[in-house]
Fold this sequence. Notes:
Layout: H1 13-32, E1 36-37, E2 43-45, H2 56-59, E3 62-65, E4 71-74, H3 79-88, E5 97-101, E6 104-106, E7 118-127, H4 133-148, E8 156-162, H5 163-172, H6 178-187, H7 195-204, H8 209-219, H9 224-230, H10 236-251, E9 257-259, E10 273-279, E11 288-292, H11 296-299, E12 307-313, H12 315-323, E13 336-340, H13 346-358, E14 363-365, H14 372-382, E15 386-390, H15 392-396, E16 399-404, E17 410-414
Parallel strand pairs: 1-5, 8-9, 13-14, 13-15
Antiparallel strand pairs: 2-4, 3-4, 5-7, 6-7, 7-12, 8-10, 10-11, 11-12, 15-16, 16-17
Helix pairs in contact: 1-4, 4-10
The protein binds histidyl-adenosine monophosphate.
Amino acid sequence: MTQGVRGTRDFYPEDMRLRNWLFERFHSAARSHGFEEYDAPVLESEELYTRKAGEEIVGQLYNFEDKGGRRVALRPEMTPSLARMVMARAGGLALPIKWYSIPQCWRYERTQRGRGREHYQWNVDIWGMNGIEADAELLSVLVQFFDSVGLSSEDLVIRISSRKVLEEVLGSLGLEGEIFAQTCVIVDKMDKLPEDVVEAQLSDLGLSSESISTIRSVLGITDMQSLSSALSSDSEALIELQSLFSLCDSYGISDWVSFDASVVRGLAYYTGPVFEAHDRAGNLRAICGGGRYDKLIGTLGGNDLPATGFGFGDMVIMELLADKGLVPELSNGVGDVVFGMGTELRGAAMQVAAKLRSAGRTVDLVLENKKMKWVFKHAERCGATRLVMVMPDEWAEGKVRIKNLDSGEESTVAMDNL
Ligand code: HAM
């Protein structure tokens, strides 16, 4: 009872500092590309998520009946809420919509390194654009973020493919419609589940063993040359992917991206380009993932609107940064520690603190009688840059003593010049 729920995290101030540091970088990569922030409730109607393609995420729902007898769920992902919001204002929103958010998401998953039962997930999405330019812009947001935390293209790779590759291959085998999304969901697990389990699931869907082996061989392709030989010459998937890689070139991010047909993604709603970032060493789960989902609103009963986006968790990235020695040492942001010598100078110390605060300084005022030794230690613990001491003699002349904690220099400064 006194322990947090398994798979959930407490954020002590030192954890919160890091979280804010990370989120600030999420915010700034999105804002620098012209995205605006939105939010939605963590509690949604269960039916927003009960898709029928056999996705893991549906089985991991935190769902229950509320006191009014409504079936509700904690959101496992943001995309359906976003779709709901866009749908509610359909026609009234200027297109393209470029929105981002950092929601907490809940999934009843097996907890492991980089995976918990709650996580914060940076979501960046563009709605109302058919062109591949939107997908490329998302990749640029991602790279800008990676750059801002000190990661390079030697540390990680964004693997890209398109659902259309599999759609075209299945089409050539005479498999279309409903079966496509279900196949994608199964195929996504190919590297996580034993071969025979995946094969059994695919054959349950009605795929012959020849079809399964064709799919396997196509999913093994990791270069565009081989892809073009595997698909027909007028393949939409191929043309789309070629343009996407050429746009990456224009953004100067080619080193960060590579083609990999095995990227399919485990969510049913993707329809076009899909991508995932992975650490190059292959030690961690996916850092982030996304893709195009042009038909999601249709499945919710609205009129389809093209959309593309990604979700980026806060857990795997911190593991990667730790592995690379890139987690910053952050102080708690206090600039000045103000200390009044004795109870009589408490009021004076408050005046000094108030003056510094209104000048924009971040001030921690010592509120009790403490020994000088404690005050110095406290200032050090806070990571303060200055110790401002209110002492009887100096105060009598309207002055305070300031110690610069970096250089050790001390000076006496008049209140007016603080
Ligand atoms: P997803 O691949 O299920 O996609 O999740 C995206 C990212 O969220 C993952 O790559 C990972 O970083 C993080 N994540 C997911 N589950 C967990 C977990 N249990 N613990 C820690 N981190 C986790 C989606 O959710 C899509 N809705 C993303 C999207 C947005 N697609 C288009 N727009």
